[in-house]
Amino acid sequence: MKVRSAVAVDRIEGKDKRLGILSEAPLVLETPHNLLAGHAVTPKDLLFVRNVHHMPEGLTLNPLPLANWEIELSGLIDHSVLIGGEELSKMEQIEYEMVLQCSGNGRSKFSEAFPIHGTPWGQGGIGNVRFSGVPLSAVLRQHNVTIDREARFLNAQGKDVADDQRSPDFEHSLPLRDVLEKSILALKLNGEPLPAIHGGPVRLVTPGFYGTMHVKWLRRLSFETTESNNFYHATEYRVPREILKPGEQFTFTMENSVPTWKLRLMSFIFNPLPEAPLPAGRHLFSGVAFNDGSVPLETLLVSFDHGHSWNQATLHTSASPYAWHPWTIHAELKRGAYQVWCRAVDALGCSQPLDGSIFWNPNGYEWNGVHRVNITVE
Description:
Strands 5-4-13-8-9 form a 5-stranded mixed β-sheet. Strands 6, 7, 10, 11 and 12 form a 5-stranded antiparallel β-sheet that branches. It is mostly beta strands. A hairpin with a 7-residue loop joins strand 19 (about 295-305) and strand 20. The protein contains 7 helices and 24 strands. The chain has helices spanning about 5-10, 35, 85-90, 105-110, 135-140, 175-180, 230-235, and strands spanning about 20-25, 25-30, 50, 70-75, 80-85, 95-100, 125-135, 155-160, 170-175, 185-190, 190-195, 205, 220-225, 240, 255-260, 265-270, 275-280, 280-290, 295-305, 310, 315, 325-335, 335-345, 370-375. The protein has a domain at about 265-375: Immunoglobulin-like (Sandwich), CATH 2.60.40.
């Protein structure tokens, strides 16, 4: 993990100062895996931070007031609606325990194949959290909103502002079917008012999707027939439809690429730590696995010999299909150097690629290669 300084963390009262700083402007903080281990739900002080633009009052773990916060609903609906934050707080809320992961998590792994520009994420842009909020479908019902049959997407825009006038606003589109089924206007994180630094007072949250699609500081929702042509959606947060060779030139269009929407199948080893010296004998290995929640996870495999043989770990149940699933396995190890691999398999037989760089892309998104940890048994 590349750490620049502790200045940014010192400005965020309540954030653990062991988080790695990948960028100060905009603020990007990464969580070492040893801090994630042992927490079924990631505490807010340990949760990674990824900002694209700047929200002047948003660099705090304190919540922003709901009073006077408004969200506009517009586009292909029979009448526009202006929703107040206080109105949302009085409506019935639901809770999702879910993985929150930056779509760039693991970008540095892609760069091993060919250099990629962008935030040099290790693999700490991840956490498992509980978001609570009001289903968007309930808001539509309360305001008697009818959506045009031609609408296919929901465009979401936050209140954050670009650092310079040349940068566009931040906007994403999500499939309307998923939005109406799962999206909430989140008001709480882990049972407490949603911190400003994590998108409060109101954030659009759709479980099973990458973090960039959970638009922070929500201020506008528009129902549309097509995806947004905003730079961050139409060009930046996308991956090619076809397999590319590392370093291959590629110009993004709506036709040849797809947004970084749903989480790829992934797993991590949290214990023991990389490079950890261990005595010979029996040891417990543990970690987590997850996907977008659409298909059950079935198996977690661990290899101690570079994938020549695999051992089935115990995959424990999770609080929801969208949360990470803890796994454990015991192994008797003799003296020597080992590289431990873990690999998740879902109920359809899909598994993580042994070499994640097969999905190399110019933006460095959606890395999901098998996780590897080097250890030494003394």
